[in-house]
């Protein structure tokens, strides 16, 4: 069965940067399919990159994501690879953004023969403040339950897409076998 990892990223000591961690915490109390793992990664981005070498088909990163909208706005971003100019990432355990983690994973996969996740989604929330403080701002706190529902929906959609892909693979394999048998 395909494996999915939902990873909450962020620093709970920097206000709304704790969005991913809080969302992951709330997801752990929900009934999820058996192939889905939820992890509070926090600021341990290097650990996450190495964990991904264990083989996951889908990765959902949950993080505070500043894109200029109103605080509490949720985003779903399909990650399609590192941006231009990215090379081997500088490893700084305190600044492991999703881009840096995924670039490190690409480097690790190249060195080990591993395979990165087939699909990477980022569920982000526009922060109000990432200054030193414990606790989420009111708009980001209000976005957490919506983020949990959004992630559950993404997991359902991803499972349906994977089932359709597996069915197509099985059909092609069966057709190929029938042709060889004739």
Q: Would you mind describing this structure in some detail?
A:
The protein has 182 residues and is α/β, with parallel strands linked by helices. The chain is 42% helix and 18% strand. It has 4 helices and 5 strands, in the order βαβαββαβα. It has a 5-stranded mixed beta sheet, sandwiched between helices. Helix 1 (19-27) packs across helix 4 (138-181) and helix 2 packs across helix 3 (98-112). The longest helix has 44 residues, at 138-181. Mean pLDDT is 82; it is low at 84-94 and 173-182.
What is the number of beta strands? Answer: 5
**Order of SSEs:** EHEHEEHEH
Give Rg in angstroms: 18 Å
Q: What is the count of helical runs? A: 4
Large-scale geometry: globular
Task: Tell me the β content.
Answer: 15-25%
Which secondary-structure class do the elements indicate?
alpha/beta
End-to-end distance: 32 Å
Largest sheet: 5 strands, mixed
Order of strands in the sheet with the most strands? 2-1-3-5-4
Helix content: 40-55%
Mean pLDDT: 82
Model regions low in confidence, pLDDT < 50 over at least 5 residues: 84-94, 173-182
Summarize this entry quickly.
The protein has helices spanning 19-27, 45-52, 98-112, 138-181, and strands spanning 4-9, 36-42, 58-64, 74-78, 119-125. By secondary structure, the protein is an alpha/beta fold.
Show the helix and strand layout.
Blueprint: E1 4-9, H1 19-27, E2 36-42, H2 45-52, E3 58-64, E4 74-78, H3 98-112, E5 119-125, H4 138-181
């Amino acid at each position: 069965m395909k494996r999915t990892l939902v990873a909450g990223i962020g620093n709970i000591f920097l206000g709304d940067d704790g969005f991913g961690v809080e969302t992951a915490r709330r997801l752990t109390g929900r009934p999820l399919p058996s192939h889905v793992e939820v992890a509070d990664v926090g600021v341990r981005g290097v650990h996450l990159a190495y964990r991904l070498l264990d083989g996951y088909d889908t990765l959902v990163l949950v993080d505070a994501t500043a894109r200029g909208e109103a605080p509490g706005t949720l985003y779903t971003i399909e990650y399609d690879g590192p941006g231009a100019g990215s090379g081997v990432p500088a490893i700084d355990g305190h600044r492991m953004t999703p881009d840096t983690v995924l670039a490190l994973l690409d480097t690790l996969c190249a060195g080990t023969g591993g395979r990165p996740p087939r699909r990477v989604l980022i569920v982000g929330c526009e922060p109000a403040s990432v200054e030193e403080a414990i606790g989420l701002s009111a708009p980001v706190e209000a976005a957490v339950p919506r983020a949990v529902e959004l992630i559950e929906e993404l997991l359902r959609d991803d499972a349906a897409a994977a089932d359709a892909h597996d069915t197509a693979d099985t059909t092609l394999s069966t057709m190929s076998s029938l042709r060889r048998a004739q």
